Structure formats: structure tokens, C-alpha cells
Amino acid sequence: MEALVPAFIVTVLAQLGEKPALLTAILADRFNQPLRVALAAIVAHAGLNAMAAMGAILIGPTLSPNAQALFLAIAFLFGGLGALLPARAPDRLDGWRLGAMATTALGTFSVALGSQTQFFALAFGVFGLPWFAFAGTLAGTACVAIAAALTGETLWVRMPLRALRAVSAVLFLGAAAVIGSGALRLT
Prior knowledge:
The chain contains eight helices and no strands. It is an all-alpha fold.
């Protein structure tokens, strides 16, 4: 249970200014079906986060507690560095004629593959609670996907996402420093 809430909070912070959320907003406007688009995005995120949880099942038992903490610190470090980079707009998938569900599911899967969310699911999951980490990251991505789909592209891009990314970067880098120094026994 210890991984559920932190994974949720970290995922929401990481996803707010990322490509998958903007793509969800774009496709919700394009298809005029926000709930279907949000559901398809959630399905794509579920598949990706489930793969991360399965990876945590495989590598978690091989790591010492300090290595697990260092793994989490590295996830926060990369999350913070990623939040400092300007977010680029995703491909609008205008040529995709697969319908609202398939276009959103496949597009979100391809855009979100290897994103911070999976790394956080893996990092929280190596502590021996991979399915709680999966549930937390999935709930976080679901909240952001639903919000993006319901607001649509016009309102989504007007949100202060740059400021949110800056706050996320500071929080993630601070967490990386604290967790990493503890893992390396520097404190």
C-alpha cells in the first residue's frame, strides 16, 4: 500500500505537461468523444504500466534496499530533468483513420512508451509492491487523461503547464537528492 499514493501523486505531477495528455486533449476535440478517448488513453497507459510492474517483479528481488532506493532516486532525477525540458507537441495523428478508440489507444501507447510514468511504476514497484505501484500510476494517468479529454485542446494548452513542469522539476530533483543521498549513505 505504501507505493499506491506516492505513485499516484508523482504520476499526476509528471503527466500534466507531457505529450500523452496533450494528445488525449487533441483527440477528444477531433473525435468529439471525450469519454471514449479518455478510456482508450487509460487502456494504453494500463498496458504500459502493467509491463513496468512485471519488470519490477523480475528485478525487485535482486536489488538490496539501498539499490532499490537508488533506483527510485534515479527515477526522480530523470523525472526532474525531463520536466526541465520544454514539452514538444505530439503528432496530431491526422492521417490515422482508425476511429476514436483505436487511434487514441495506439497513439497514446506509442507516445507514452518509455515515459516517466513507466519508470516511476518500475521504481516504486521494485520495493516489493509492484501492483500497488501499477494501481497508483494508472490512477494518476487516468485522472490526467480524463481531465485532458474533458477540457479539450484549447483549454488544456492555456493551463499554466510550464509553471507546473517547473514545480515538478524542483520537487523531483529535491526528492532525488534526498533519496539518493540516503541510498548512498551520505546523510
